[in-house]
Known about the structure:
Elements: H1 4-10, H2 15-50, H3 60-89, H4 96-105, H5 108-115, H6 119-133, E1 141-144, E2 147-154, E3 158-163, E4 168-172, H7 175-178, E5 182-183, E6 191-199, H8 205-217, E7 222-234, E8 239-247, H9 250-271, E9 284-286, E10 292-294
Antiparallel strand pairs: 1-2, 1-5, 2-3, 3-4, 6-8, 7-8, 9-10
Helix pairs in contact: 1-2, 2-3, 3-4, 3-6, 8-9
Amino acid sequence: MFGTPLLADYVALGEPVRMVLGILGRIAIVIAIGWTIGTVVDAYIKREISNLKLDQADNLHARKSATRLDVVRRIWIVTSGIVTIAAALTIIPGVRQIGISLFASAGIAGLALGLAARPVLSNLIAGLQIAFTQPIRIDDAVVVEGEWGWIEEIGLFYVVIKIWDWRRLVVPLSYFIETPFQNWTRQSASILGSVFWYLDYRAPIGAIREQLKVICEKSDLWDGNVTNLQVSDADDRTLTVRALASARTSPEAWDLRCLIREEMVSWLQEHHPYALPRFRVESLEDDQDGRRAPRGAKFEPDESLRRPDEG
């Protein structure tokens, strides 16, 4: 391959053929050099990502680095490809001007001013912003478009969110720059989980609070930081009881919430069945004065309603 231009000078071929072979040889050299440099840098970044300890419970720093390196790697692949193609085009006399134009457009100023308004390049610039400002990171727990899930992949133009039921939500990168969303693990991988019950007014709140601590303390899903139980609301029929418990990661928080909900319901059924919600119906019957009283109850007339002429 490297000797193609030299062989063309010695082979008894016509001048046009030797010129074409020489151009093809130089193009091959440029592409080989560009591919080698791009592959070496890509492999180095991949190795750095693989060395990060993403499987640890407290992996916030590792997720920050993985997000930044992954976005930079994808941008590097595109940039090195554009530069290599542009360099190869400059070798061809007829299309040299196209290669020079590609070099000019590859500059940061040309990219920002000339192409940022286009959707694809808008997402590319959003990717750069996400890589360094990091509103989202790999494995962040987020709520987007009403769907709760984890950031599975941050591509060059889109983000893949793994929904809790294993569906995938694909969102453009620019969405996370322009639209509000919830990030539950922005500062830490730890997360609070909430559980609600609707109980009867006779429910023993103190005993339920103690049982919540017992359930959490015997579970490996609880990180040992937060347990709390409060009556958060009350209506004409039930109390709304809310429990909070913390976990190391969002998947563990989900499992802990389910565990608390199931064990608390079983405990209430066994020890305090009267605490479960119920409808109360009171049957009334007319008394001798036309007023209504509970069926079977002895009616005592109200003295304040007695007429003066009644003895």
